[in-house]
TrEMBL record:
Source species taxonomy: Bacteria, Bacillati, Actinomycetota, Actinomycetes, Kitasatosporales
Keyword Repressor: no
InterPro entries per record: MFS (IPR011701), MFS_trans_sf (IPR036259)
Keyword match Cell membrane: no
Name of the protein in question: MFS transporter
């Protein structure tokens, strides 16, 4: 049997756009960590650093869907390059403001400019969908590969950022991230042969958020994002409680590694059954596996927690792969980037809520109890999708019942009439 990932790159141009996208995607895991280290070091305030990064996250949640809509309407190369240039300018301005110790409000303004960063992962997935629209098996493999790439970049990004900021100078992580982002997008946009054609908006073009089943799915992504956000904050607090704060990054990297490995394995398998059912199973598995860190935390051993997070992460990628498959299926034609960016926006909102909820729980009940938050968030995602699926089934049944019954009428034609030649 041929390697499904080798078959994925048989189309000319796929390797080149994938390489460019990976270069552009790596900074996504660098910018927040770099900004926190840079601002906290320059201004002596983690509160200010957190507020600035939170502002950037909120601005991205608002701006990203509009950027994606322009990408769908006018083409990836035409929109992504100037949008990335503006975002890179924001990163450079932020670094300059910190270096010059400018007033705090300038940091918020500069970091808000980075909200124009295009959804590079979404653009890559849109290319795969364009190339393999009639091949669900290859599209499944492509989505799995993209999710594994996401996990890899978010696993390596913080490590690279911390290394640059601490070994060179505080602004090194932000500056390097801006250069990598712009370089990667330029390389990605140059591969025009694989770029989906732009779709001009018409009066009949429907918004992705109004597509049937999309809004409930986005609420599931919101709850799923809360799993990720709370897990990160609680794990850092748990390691810090035991005087091993420096090990938090490695422990979280193991969770990403488990997800990356599971995503690649999931992509090599042929999907069985409807995507709705697979997504339900994935959410159930994620809810079950998220109880492992909670149990491991009760032992007080960081090593036990690391193993639990490695196993818990294995449910993440299959869940996200199947969820993105549903988003692609429910997004109207010509609005692929916007649909997937809305899903990412839901994740970002969930990450912010999960971070806040995890921090609140840790402060009041301790880091060990904080692992209840990702369990609750995963269970909420499962419940929301179960309710949405049940409502969709009931709606289909009502429609079938309300359809008018047209009885079959048997008409008997006399033999002499049937044999009579027509004039």
């Amino acid at each position: 049997m041929a390697n499904p990932y080798a078959r994925l790159f048989e189309v000319p141009g796929t390797r080149a756009f994938t390489l460019g996208n990976l270069v552009a995607r790596l900074p996504m895991g660098m910018f927040s960590v770099s900004a926190v280290i840079m601002i906290a070091g320059g201004y002596g305030s983690y509160a200010l650093a957190g507020a600035v990064t939170a502002t950037g996250l909120a601005a991205t949640a608002v701006v990203a869907p509009y950027t994606a809509r322009l990408v769908d309407r006018h083409g990836q190369a035409r929109i992504a390059v100037p949008a990335t240039a503006l975002a890179a300018l924001g990163s450079l301005t932020l670094a300059l403001c910190v270096r010059l110790e400018a007033p705090a409000w300038t940091l918020f303004a500069a970091y808000a400019l980075t909200a124009t960063t295009p959804n590079t992962g979404g653009m890559s997935r849109a290319r795969w969908q364009h190339l393999y629209k009639g091949d669900p098996d290859r599209l499944h493999t492509a989505n799995s590969f993209e999710q594994a790439a996401d996990e890899l970049c978010f696993m390596l990004g913080p490590v690279v950022a911390a290394l640059l900021c601490t070994s060179l100078f505080p602004e090194a992580g932000t500056l390097t991230g801006a250069v990598l982002l712009l370089t990667g997008v330029l390389l990605f946009a140059a591969q025009r042969s694989t770029e989906p054609p732009p779709h001009r908006r018409t009066p009949t073009t429907r918004s992705p958020i109004g597509a049937p089943g999309m809004l409930p799915l986005l609420t599931v992504f919101l709850a799923t994002g809360a799993v990720f956000g709370s897990m990160e904050v609680v794990t850092v607090a748990y390691a810090d409680e035991r005087g091993q704060a420096s090990a938090a990054g490695l422990v979280l990297a193991l969770q990403a590694a488990g997800s990356c490995a599971a995503g690649l394995l999931y992509g090599a398998l042929k999907p069985a059954g409807p995507a709705n059912r697979r997504f339900l199973y994935c959410l159930a598995a994620m809810t079950a596996l998220m109880t492992l860190p909670l149990l491991a935390a009760s032992t007080g051993a960081l090593l036990a927690l690391a193993g639990a997070l490695l196993l818990a992460g294995m449910a993440t990628a299959p869940t996200m792969v199947t969820g993105m498959t549903l988003v692609q299926a429910r997004t109207p034609e010509g609005r692929t980037n916007e649909g997937m960016t809305l899903a990412v926006t839901g994740l970002l909102g969930g990450i912010a809520c999960g971070s806040a909820g995890g921090g609140w729980t840790v402060e009041r009940f301790g880091a060990g109890a904080g692992y209840l938050v990702p369990v609750a968030a995963a269970a909420l995602a499962l419940l929301l999708f179960s309710i949405a699926a049940a409502c969709a089934r009931n709606t289909r049944r009502r429609r079938r019942r309300n359809q008018p019954h047209v009885p079959y009428v048997t008409v008997t034609v006399p033999a002499e009439a049937a044999s009579k030649p027509s004039p």
